[in-house]
């Protein structure tokens, strides 16, 4: 059995490297990300599914952040959230196909454009704003028209 102290040094260097990389998680270019969460609903209280994006206002440093809205709720953590400061917020909902009313002799079907081509799901987008504080609370609830 041989003793190889340099192997232990290599392991130690590797552990330090891993710790340094992990310590950088949650930051983008030195800007800390924040655990932002909240709800998105229509003014009538209807919860929605879709996505929400927080984009730093123009000229502001920091990462953008995008996540899903599920049953009216969204959540970012410190690894994928936005940074502090003013943001443009974009909420996107992908709607299902709207059915045409029944007509005499016809069953319901997908809507068509004036040329008769079937239309797919409709996307609706809202542009909002939020100013995220450096120190909580980080809850932002949005009511959509």
Explain what this protein looks like in three dimensions.
By secondary structure, the protein is mainly β. Helices cover 13% and strands 33% of the residues. The chain has 1 helix and 9 strands, in the order αβββββββββ. The chain has a 4-stranded antiparallel beta sheet with strand order 5-4-7-8, with no helix packed on it. Strands 6-3-9 form a 3-stranded mixed beta sheet, with no helix packed on it. The chain has a two-stranded antiparallel ribbon with strand order 1-2. A hairpin with an 8-residue loop joins β4 and β5. The longest helix is centred in the N-terminal third of the chain and has 19 residues, at 5-23. The radius of gyration is 24 Å and the shape is globular.
What can be said about this structure in brief?
By secondary structure, the chain is mainly beta. It is 13% helix and 33% strand. The protein starts with a helix and ends with a strand.
Q: SSE layout and pairings?
A:
Elements: H1 5-23, E1 27-28, E2 31-32, E3 37-42, E4 50-56, E5 65-69, E6 73-75, E7 85-94, E8 123-132, E9 142-144
Parallel strand pairs: 3-9
Antiparallel strand pairs: 1-2, 3-6, 4-5, 4-7, 7-8
Percent of residues in β-strands? 25-35%
The spatial strand order of the largest sheet comes to: 5-4-7-8
Contiguous runs where pLDDT drops below 50 for at least 5 residues: 6-28, 96-112
Largest β sheet strand count, sense and barrel closure: 4 strands, antiparallel
Overall average pLDDT: 75
| Structural class by SSE content | mainly beta
- How would you spell out the order of helices and strands? HEEEEEEEEE
What is the rounded Rg? 24 Å
How far from one another are the termini? 75 Å
- Number of E strands: 9
Task: Tell me roughly what share of residues is in helical segments.
Answer: 10-25%
The general outline is globular
Give the count of helical stretches. Answer: 1
């Amino acid at each position: 059995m041989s003793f190889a102290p340099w192997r232990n040094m290599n392991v130690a260097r590797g552990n330090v490297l891993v710790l340094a990389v992990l310590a950088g998680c949650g930051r983008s270019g030195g800007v800390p990300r924040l655990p932002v969460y909240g709800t998105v609903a229509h003014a009538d209280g209807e919860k929605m599914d879709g996505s929400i994006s927080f984009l730093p206002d123009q000229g502001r440093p920091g990462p953008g952040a995008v996540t899903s809205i599920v049953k009216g709720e969204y959540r970012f953590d410190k690894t994928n959230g936005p940074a502090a400061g003013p943001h443009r917020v974009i909420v996107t909902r992908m709607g299902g196909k709207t059915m045409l009313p029944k007509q005499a002799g016809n069953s319901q079907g997908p809507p068509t454009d004036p040329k008769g081509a079937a239309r797919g799901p409709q996307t609706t987008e809202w542009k909002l704003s939020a100013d995220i504080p450096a120190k909580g609370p980080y809850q932002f609830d949005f009511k959509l028209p």
